[in-house]
């Protein structure tokens, strides 16, 4: 009889099937990449003036947040300032976003990444506004270019920490912290401040990860097991008492019976 074939083995032997399976397992990541590819192509093929107009018009800077708050928050996450760096983002998306989405599921991944993008954007632009009001930055910074996907990447990088096993987790954690902390401590910009917020939100997303669910399940299982063991001990302790009580009853009946016969 022929043994059952392993479908994963077939995928491993067929690169096209493997790629299709990988893309289907992280649809949000690849839809996002596709949109960024299209917008990067638009910027690369546009004239310099049109390109600058599109970059500023789709930024989530103070001016655009005041004029078009929701569209600017959403659209700014689908453009990158330098189309030539698109291939680098492809690599980063596949290494970080795709793995987090496959692990947590698309909806939880979207909540982690989208929440961090919005929070980091608003917080960093609030910092710019305070600096302008404090005369530390010129008023022209209200129109500063603020587009990109780096806030979402920072949050996904933080959440990915819980996916790795020891000792790789600790080495990865040190590397991620150093990558984002060094710019923050050496002439930080508002973007570096946003990266720090997004990374922190990624670390705080622990309850949304399967690792947290597994730990909670183990805790509940241990509690139920301890309760069952306590119940068994109680039954064992109560058992001899019932037997002793039963024995006493038998002796009493015998004595009463004997006395009546005399």
List the topology elements.
Blueprint (H helix, E strand, L loop, with lengths): L6 H7 L1 H11 L1 H19 L2 H10 L4 H6 L1 H7 L10 H19 L1 H28 L16 H11 L7 H18 L4 H14 L6 H52 L1
**How much is the radius of gyration in Å?**
31 Å
Helix content, binned percent:
over 70%
Shape: globular
The residue ranges in which pLDDT falls below 50 over 5 or more consecutive positions are: 6-10, 236-262
Summing up helix and strand content along with how strands pair, one would put the structural category as: mainly alpha
Give the CA-CA distance, first to last residue: 82 Å
Mean pLDDT: 84
Write a concise synopsis of the structure shown.
The protein has 262 residues and is mostly helical. The protein has twelve helices and no strands.
Write a concise keyword list for the protein shown above.
single chain, 262 residues, mainly alpha, 12 helices
Give a verbal description of the structure.
There is one protein chain. By secondary structure, the chain is mainly α. Helix 1 packs across helix 2, helix 3 packs antiparallel against helix 7 and helix 7 crosses helix 8. The C terminus is likely disordered. It is globular and about 55 Å long. The N and C termini lie far apart (82 Å).
């Amino acid at each position: 009889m022929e043994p059952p074939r392993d479908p994963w083995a077939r995928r491993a032997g067929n690169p096209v099937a493997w790629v299709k399976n990988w893309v289907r397992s992280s649809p949000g990541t690849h839809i996002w990449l596709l949109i960024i590819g299209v917008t990067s192509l638009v910027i690369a093929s546009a004239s310099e003036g049109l390109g600058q107009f599109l970059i500023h018009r789709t930024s989530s800077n103070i001016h655009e947040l005041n004029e078009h708050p929701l569209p600017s928050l959403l659209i700014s996450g689908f453009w990158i300032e330098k189309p030539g760096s698109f291939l680098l983002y492809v690599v980063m998306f596949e290494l970080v976003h795709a793995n987090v989405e496959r692990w947590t599921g698309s909806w939880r991944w979207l909540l982690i990444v989208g929440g961090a993008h919005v929070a980091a954007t608003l917080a960093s632009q609030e910092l710019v506004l305070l600096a302008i009001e404090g005369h530390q930055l010129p008023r022209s910074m209200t129109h500063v270019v603020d587009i990109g996907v780096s806030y979402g990447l920072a949050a996904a990088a933080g959440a990915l920490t819980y996916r790795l096993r020891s000792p790789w987790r600790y080495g990865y954690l040190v590397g991620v912290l150093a990558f984002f902390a060094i710019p923050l401590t050496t002439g930080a910009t508002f973007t570096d401040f946003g990266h720090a917020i997004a990374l922190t939100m990624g670390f705080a997303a622990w309850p949304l990860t399967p690792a947290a669910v597994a730990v909670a399940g183990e805790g509940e299982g241990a509690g139920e097991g301890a309760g069952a063991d306590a119940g068994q001990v109680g039954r064992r302790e109560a058992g001899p008492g019932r037997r002793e009580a039963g024995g006493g009853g038998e002796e009493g009946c015998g004595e009463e019976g004997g006395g009546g016969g005399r």
